[in-house]
Amino acid sequence: MVLSNSETSRGRPGRAIAAGLGHARGLLRGATDALLPPRCLRCNDMVDSPHALCPACWGQLSFVVPPLCAHCGTPFPYAQAAGAICGACAAAPPVYARARAALVYDDGSRDLVLAFKHGDRLAGTALFGQWLGQAGAELLADADVVAPVPLHRWRLLGRRYNQAALLARAVARHAGIEPVPDLLSRLRATPSQGARGRAARERNVRGAFAVRARHRRMLAGQRVLLIDDVLTTGATLEACSRALSQAGAAAVDVLTLARVVRSLPPSI
What we know:
The protein is an alpha/beta fold. The longest helix has about 30 residues, at about 5-35. The chain has helices spanning about 5-35, 55-60, 85-90, 110-120, 125-135, 135-140, 155-160, 165-175, 200-205, 215-220, 235-245; strands at about 100-105, 145-150, 185, 210, 225-230, 250-260. The chain has a single domain (about 60-260), classed as Rossmann fold (3-Layer(aba) Sandwich), CATH 3.40.50. The chain starts with a helix and ends in a 9-residue tail after the last strand.
């Protein structure tokens, strides 16, 4: 394409300004790095670029990769036929349709996840969103709605942020979907799930979630992708999925930053 002289004369200043701004940003970044060198998200050692992990911490992460249970996303230790499900899902299928996670929740990822969840270490949010986008690509492709597991208002007041909502925003931005951060509400301030077994976790969150009235019409017939930080027994995610299904959602999928992986049941 050939530009006229007037178009050329208008374009040159714009390119010059853009180049100047890029140069200024580079100088500012260099000055900032000199004063505040970028640190590893997990161990706080110096790294080459901001919001990254050092090689040692990166090497300790275990990413969840196929083969997986088609329902709950538990990784299988050996190759399986497409659509294989684990014995646990065959015996008691979860309320949600599919669950996927980016990381195994273990000694390598625990400090990273807990610092993000409880320690105000939010610098890795964009990186976590990329990991979630890769782990949940199939789920995102099918999703009509992306929403986080909610915190009760008192816990949100104390923590000041909902880590699941930050992850939902990051992964939705990665996929080009607008998230609905207030799709669900937490009806009561349930005690922490941390030290509870599966049955106690299920009792603790039974009936604790509801779809907000203003979103019910929008939800009808839609496939929801529910975002949380960690999948342990799945009790919280099942309670949320049940509330979404009862409000008219066609299906619910689940995507978490990490998941606990216990001994593997046989596949079906």
